[in-house]
Structures are given as structure tokens and as C-alpha cells.
Amino acid sequence: MAEFWAKGVELGLKGKQLTEFVESQTRLLAQREERQAQREREERQAQSEREERQAQREERQAQREERERQIELKRLELQIKMETKRLELQTEMVRVQNQHEAPRQRDNQQQMLHRASKLPAFTDGKDQIDTPYFTGEVEAVCLKKPLYDLLIGNIGGARRPDDPDVEWRMGAAQPAVEEEDPLPFANEDISELLRDDIATVHRRDQPQVVSAVTTRAQAKKDKTTTPLRVTNSSATAVVDRDQLIQLQEADLTLTKYRSRPVKEMTKGEGTVHFEVKAKILYRVFQHPRVNGGKPLRQVLVPQPLRRQVMEVAHDSIMGGHLGVKKTSDRIQAAFYWPGLHADVTRFCRSCDICQKTIPRGRVPKVPLQKMPLIDRPFKRVAIDLIGEIKPPSEAGHRWVLTLVDYATRYPEAVPLKKIDTETVAEALVDIFSRIGVPEEILTDLGTQFVSECMEEVNRLLSIRHLTTTPYHPMCNGLVEKFNATLKSTLKKLCSEQPRQWHRYINALLFAYREVPQESTGFSPFELMYGRTVRGPMQILKELWTKDVDTPEVKNSYQYVFELREKLEETLEIARENLRKSQDSGKHYYDRKAVNRKFTPGNKVLILLPTDHNKLLMQWKGPYEVETVVGIDDYKVNVGKKSKIYHANLLKLYVERPPEAVQVAASVEEPAELDEFDGEELLELGDLHKKEGVDDVKLGPDLTEDQQKELHDFMGDFTHRFSDVPGSTSLVEHEVHLTSDVPVRSKPYPIPFQARESLKKDIDNMLKMGVIRESSSPYSSPVVVVKKKDGTNRVCIDFRKVNKITVFDPEPMPTATDLFRQLTGSKIFSKIDLSKGYWQIPVREEDIPKTAFATPDGTYECLRMPFGMVNSGATLKRGMRKMLKGMKNVVYYWDDLLVHTETFAEHLETLRELFSRLTKANLTVRPSKCILGTDNVDFIGYSLKEGQKGLLLENVTKILNAPRPETKKQVRSFLGLAGYYREFIPNFAAITAPLSDMTRKGCPNRILWGPAQEKAYQTVRDLMSRDPVLRLPDTAKEFILRTDASDEGIGAMLMQEHGGKPFPVSYASKKLSGAEKNYSTMEKECLAIVWGIKTFELYLQGVKFVLQTDHKPLTYLNSAKFVNNRIMRWVMYLQNFDMRVESIKGSDNVGADFLSRVCE
């Protein structure tokens, strides 16, 4: 206390002030000492508890070790007893066997004793013995007073004591069975031997019955092998040579090959001709990669024998039920007939065994359906049971009843000792007493939930009961996901006390209810009570800071009114977040989904569990579809019952037609000689059409009527859907040069392994009329480039020709211009031209300028090639001419995008577009077309309902890219990520540590430090969050927010949707050295000018709002500034019609963040 008096005097305090100062300091000291003593007491108590727990653990460990020691002793004691019993039984078996062979044994004994009497005691000698256990010559020791006639010890080849040779007879010379282990029974299970010995040997006090003993090994050898089950095949019918000749002559589909003269036809790199040898018709096929280049003679199979051949190749025991290609290859090794590949495809797809054993993952899932969004708490709840949990709790609980609310995600969990209907109903009523009675409950088909008792409970409480389809837990995914979280967390909490798990449930529920849900953005507590619940984090914060919020005093009416308003607001936000989360989940789920539909009468296979195990699923059936119940649910007749199944558990069953069908007529015609079936057809490459309307993808959310309309539309324009390029007359590619001197370049060396592929592509282009042989004085080198699908693309290096080519100034469309036109569109169709460049001819006088050299000669292009400086401009001009005056269609190179608000307008636009494509003689690639979808990928972005997102494929590349180590790799990473810089706030500042490493003078090998690692990981993290921007709507007012910091400036362009501002684009820039010296006013003004210049395309000529958190700048349009630089900027801003608003710094988080450098 004296110290406090001295300190008070030093501070100049006197009288009452000094006394109060000393008293306050004394109280504070006492409080600190009390807190210190309290902490010490708590630490001592915690230490005592830790020591007590440690002692308990050590005691339990000692008890476990003692139990294990006792178990080991008992095991050894039992093993000794069993070994003793086994030896006694073996001795008894030998005695019984000796009695059985007594006469023979006495004779053998006399002979052996006679020989033994001639040998001295303990002398060695070789002797020939003949016994049921060993026959042969051995080295033996002869005793004067033997205990037994013969003792056979541990010698090689000796039989087991319980396995004598039952066929042995006196005087027989049966060789002993040679075994590497003299005592092979030493490692066998004693209990097994004990059971066998008890079964075959009698006790001494029982009548002894002697019989031959059969060992397990002998029984396995003598066991008859079960014959293999072989599929019955009609191929067992014997067909001799004369019958084959008769069937070939009678088959009308083979007459054409027999009647025409032998003529060799070229097929890709191979040749084909037909011949008759010994009255049998053959097809002779020769190819350098087939049969070592030797001719392959194939028998032409008549129609009655074709099914037999396919059964042997596919269904037989040596057929292996292989796929279409391998089965087709196996057949073509010896046989052939017109339409072989199509017949084999139908045969394999209709194979009953193959259909029932196909892996579940090979059957695509149907598109995900959206669950209705619930906007009122506890209107609908999901219920399920967890268990049986082992070990049960100390109180006997084995199950957990779980309940989750669809609107708030508020969970409940009640441990149960049993799960009969009455117990479950009472637990539910107990929960309803706290949360209220819901209108709907969703459960699976458990007997507890569908029993008559539960139905009566639902009737009394006016609850509508909804159930999932069998074996489809995805329908009740909300509670299933909570169950997984509960089980995982409960396992961690009760790891030290497993039988106390029921006491952790309430704490676990608090932890789950306190944290925000990813789908709603709020915690269940907030949505339930309209406030943040005081939890461990708040308590810890209050203990550390002594900062306790004092609630505002309100009357009851005001409190209820504000609480209701807040609940309605948060539920509305949560509902919107749920809708977005639902759309995002459906988007990613539907990427590999296929819209599979079944009709009444279809035969289907059902994926059902075996042995009541959900994990062991196999296809069963076929069964018949009775009716369509829902969007993806079907009622199927399973045996004598009708059950409802989800489409993901069903697979269409393809029935194999009968072997012989009597028909009145057939529309199938014999194949022409110039049409070749089989795998070799692919070698003709682009010469023949390989894709058609069946390869076009349709939007997964289209109704059946809309799909039918699109199929009718595609039927009207079938000739436009082809992977074979057309030839348009809209435009010709012209090459204007500044010099008449021919350009010649030395050919590049082509790798030997790529030359064959290059020759094949050249041959294909010759047949398609894309190129022709040339004697032009021009010559450009060729390179072979790998495409995404693994095939090669022939590219010509026209760089020297491009240098003297007059540049074509045709303007190119920008992504900004394209996306501006897509605002408000809800339905999209993406169409890709088939090799768009090759559909444009080259002007006749310019063809020699396109010449190129290959190892096999010089060729020139008849169609516009890749790589010429004006090729893109020519394609752009042709597209502009074709689409002139047409609305709702945008294009980027050879990609077209049809966008409309309604389906009727969309179909009309498609018909107009394809009419123009027909007139221009252009074709589209079917496999790259998608029609009538609400979500489409276009020029590197994902578009959906007025929003623009990142393309998953490119994001995956960035996330999977290895960390850059050189300047080139850093530039490559920044280039790929920079394509999406408008999605990443403050991209320039974030990537500054990486871009700085690419400056001149920096080492080529990047010195990777914490700043570079943080920038690299930040870019990856921001892109992995799937950011979304709104497409600009020129009919709405734009909002521009800007801000400046000491290191950079940022701008954010926004528009309001539903009364809330949403970002359209982000922009940011690092300040230069001179700009960093600007005053705060100058930096803020610079941010405004730079932001307006960046988004000038949107802001020029329209009214917009400029929002800034620097209030003096709100007078830009009225005040006079002394600073000349600011005055010049003000004069520039007079060209724009804007309204300046001041906002709080806390509201300007977007632009403020953009101006900050990633530290």
C-alpha cells in the first residue's frame, strides 16, 4: 500500500483523491491476486483430474494385460490337453490296426525278429521293410529287447499314423507317398484332428469295430469334379460342307457377291475382293496391320448360320462374353457377312448375362430433380433412424432417432433403446412438443414409419406422410447427410468412453446448430430464434475482453415486431441461398446424367440388394413397367407385387429376337459392294459420315413434348448434322501478297512414328477434296499437332507467307460484346460447325500460294487452311453474311449460340438458322451440339439464367497445375488465370508477387518464397469458390464503386437485381511509383477516372451512379478545384452523365478490397 501512496504523490494527488486512488489500486491488486489464486486452484484441480484419468487409464491397461495373460495361459493349457489326447488316440489307432492285421503281423514279426537276432545290440544296418506306413529300404537300429516289432520314426516318405495304405497286402511292394515334410500333420489344427480321431476310433471299453479309414486329403482326391455349366447354344448343330454351300447359294444377301466378277477394291490402306473356291464363297481382305500383311480369307456366312457364329464367339464358355469390338474382331478372323458389325452390336447388347452383370457405374444416372423449397420452419421435416449402434450405451440405448427441418436445417436427435412403432411415435411426439407439429414428414419405407399405428398417429395429428422409393436414400438426403455427420462426430467425442455416447448427443447437437450451414448461409439457431446463441466462442471472448453487450431495452410489442421482421428477412435470404446451392448442385450432378425414360410395357432390370445387404447390389429381372408414377419414379411388376422404383435403379432390358421369325416383308436391303461394315470402316476417316442427329445432346430439363419438337426439327434438317464438312458459296478465301516472288521454306523433319498418321490424313484430305497435288513454286513446311481427342491435326507453317500478306481488317467480335446480348436469355443452343475452315473454298488464283511440302510430295489447299493470317477474318465475314439481320444468335469463330427467353421462340430461331445453313451449304458437328439447355459452356465461360461463371474444365487445369518454377511457367499460369481476372477481386494486386518475378533481370529459376506461395494459393482458392457474375443488362442502371489505397486502385461495376446490387465485373490496378506519391484526394479521383475508362463501353451515353466513400468527391460536378490534375480529370468526367453518391466505408467492401495489395 505504501507503493500506492508514493505513486499517488508522484502523480500530484492530494487529500480525498489520493485516498480514493490508493483504495482503487488496493482493490485492483486484491482482485488480481484473487484471480491468480483462482487460476492456480483451477490448474491444480485440472492437474488432479488429469492424473486421476491417467491412473484410470493405467489401471485399465493393467487389467487388459492381466486378462490377456490369463487367456494365454488357458490357451496353452488347452493346447497341451488336446495334444495329449491326440497322441493317445493315435496310439489307440495303431493298436487297432495291429489287431486287424494280427495274422499278417505275426508272420512279419517272426521274419523281422529272426533277422534282428542275427544283429548285435545297437548296431546299424540296412533292411527292406514292407508295412502299411512305409515300404522300402531304410537304415535301422536293431535292439536285443525291442518294445515293439517295428518303430518307424521321423523319416522321409512315411505315412501319417492316421493315414495307412488301405490297399496294402503282405508281400506287396507299394511305394510310400513321397512328401517333403515327414510330419505334415504337425501344423494342422488340433481340434480338427481330434474330431476326426473321435469319429474313427472307439474307446477301449467299447466293442471294437475295425474298418478302413478315409482321410480328408484322400476324400478330396476322390471327390467327383462338378461339371461346368455351359450355356445352351444352337451352334452345336452340325453343318457339313455341302450344307454350307447350299445355304450360301440360297441366301439372297450373298448372291450379289457371287454373281459379280472378282474385282479388287481399295478400302483405306487395305484391299478387298470376293472369290469362289471349291464352291465356297470367300471374302479376301488384306491390310498391312492385319494378319501380318497376309491375305485373310473369310467365309461368307449365310443368314441361317449367323446367329450360331455369334453364339460361339460371344456366349460360349470360351467366348468370354466380350464386348462388341472384340467379338466382332474374333468373328472376322474367319467369317464375314454384310452388316456384321450391326448384327454383333445388337446381339451383344441383347445378351441376358451381359445386361445383368454390367457394373452399376456404367448405367448413367438421370438428371437431378429439384426438391421444393420450404419457406416456413417445421412445415416439412425429414426423419430417419441410426443403428444398431455397437456397443450399446450404458443405459441400454442402441438406436438414435434423427429429425431435420427443411427450412432452417434445425436438427433433433433422441437415443432409443428399441425401435418398435410405439417407441418411435412417443419420441416424435416428444420432439413435436418442443418444435410444434409439422405439416409433412419425409421418411424411408422402414416398418416403424409405415405401420398402421404410425398412420393413425399421422391421421390424429393431421400430418401428411411422404416416403422415399426403395433403395434410393438420395430422396431423403438432408437427414442422411446429418446422420453421417452425427455418427462421425459422435465417434470422435466418445472415443475414450464408448458406452457413454448417449450423453454426448446434446452437446453434439449444440455444436451442429451453432455453425452456419453452407446451403443457407445461416446457422440453424439463427433461423430458429432470430438471434445468435451465446456459445463457447462468445463466452471465451467475454472472459478475455470483459466486453459484454448490453441489450437495448424494448417493450414486448417492439421486440416481437422486430423479431418477426428479422426472421422473415433471414428466411428469405436463406431461401435464395438454398436455391443457388440447389442450382449449383444440379449443374455439377447433371454433367454426366442422361435423361432416361421408360414407358409402360418396357422390360427393365432392377438393381436390388442380395442377402439384405445394400452394398451387394446386382441387376435382377427382367420385369415389366406398369405405369409412370412421377418424373423419375415407375411402378414395376416384380413377381406378384407392384413396387415403385426410382429410374436410377432401373435399366432398360434389350430382348434378343427369336432365332427364326416368319415375316411378310423386310425393309433391310443387301449391302452394296462399296459399303463396308466392320471396324475397318473407321480407317476412311472423314471421308464417310460417322455422326448424325443421334449424337446431338438435348437439354436435360426439357419436357417430353419439347424433346419431341426438337427431334422433329432435327428430322427436317438431318443433312445439316454431319461431321463431313460442306462447301459454301458465301465467301472465298483470298490471299493478296505484297511481293510476286514465291516463298519457299525448307520442310521440317517429321518423326517416323508420325509419318504414317500424316500420310493417312493426307490421303483422307485428297479424297475429301480439301487438297490436291501441286507443282507450285510456293512451299511451306508441315507440322503435326496433337488435338484434345488424341488424334493428329495437319498444320502448315505459313509464317513466311503471312509476312508478305496484305492484312484483312475485318473486325473480330469480343467476348464483352457477345455477353451483352445474352441478357435475359433462359434457353440456349450451342452449335459448332464441322471443320469450319474447310467449308470455305480458296479462290482459284490463290490456290498455288497455299502449297506445302511433305515427305511424300507437295500439295496445295482447295479449302481454307489453318494458319493463314486472314483465315479468321474470312470465316468472320462469311458468318456475318449468313447471319445478317438475324436476332438471338451470336457467334465466335465457328461456334454459334442461339439464346431466347421462351422455348417457342427458341425453336423458331433454330429453324431460321438451319434454313440459312442449308442455303449456305454448311454442316454442323452433331457431337458438339447441344440444343434447348438452360446451362451452356461458351468461349470459356459457363452461362445460366443471366449469370456468367467459370468453366469447370479450365478451373480444374489451374487447380491441378503444378507449382511454377521458371519464368515461362509463371507467365503460363498467369495467362491461364488471367483469362478469368474479371471474376477475381484485386487480381493485379494478388498476383503482384508472381508477376514481379517475371521482370527483366530476375533469375529464370523462380526464388519461391512465402509471398509467392500465398499469391499462388490465393488465386487457386478464389477460383475454386466458383464465383459468379451477372450478365450486363443495358436496360438497367449501372452502379460504379471505386476506392483507392496506398498501393492500388479498384473498381466494381454492379447492377441491381431484386433490389440488391450484384457485381457485373471487377477491375484493379497497381499504382506506379509516381502515382503512389499522389495525395489521398488525387488517388481517389484517379480511381474514379480509371474505373470509368475501364468500363467506358457500358457507361458512355447512359446515366449511371458513381459511389465512393471519399465524401469530398461528391462535389465533382459543382466545386472548383485548385489542383490542376484533378481539374483536368473533372473536365474529362463532364462527358459522362453520372450521379455521385457517398457511401460508408464499411459498405464499399468490394472496391476497397480491390484496392488492397495481397500482403
Automatic annotation (TrEMBL):
Gene3D superfamilies recorded: 1.10.340.70, 3.10.20.370, 3.30.70.270, HIV Type 1 Reverse Transcriptase, subunit A, domain 1, Ribonuclease H-like superfamily/Ribonuclease H
Any one Gene Ontology BP term: DNA integration
Keyword rRNA processing (UniProt): no
Domain Reverse transcriptase: 766-943
SUPFAM superfamilies (UniProt xref): DNA/RNA polymerases, Ribonuclease H-like
Top-rank lineage group of the source organism: Eukaryota
KW Nucleotidyltransferase (keyword) present: yes
Signal peptide location: none
Molecular-function GO term, any one: endonuclease activity
Chain ranges of the Integrase catalytic domain: 373-532
Region (Disordered): 29-68
Pfam families: Integrase_H2C2, RT_RNaseH, rve, RVT_1
Compositional bias ranges of the Basic and acidic residues kind: 30-68
Keywords per UniProt: Endonuclease, Hydrolase, Nuclease, Nucleotidyltransferase, Protease, RNA-directed DNA polymerase, Transferase
Name of the featured protein: Reverse transcriptase
Source organism of the structure: Littorina saxatilis
UniProt lineage: Eukaryota, Metazoa, Spiralia, Lophotrochozoa, Mollusca
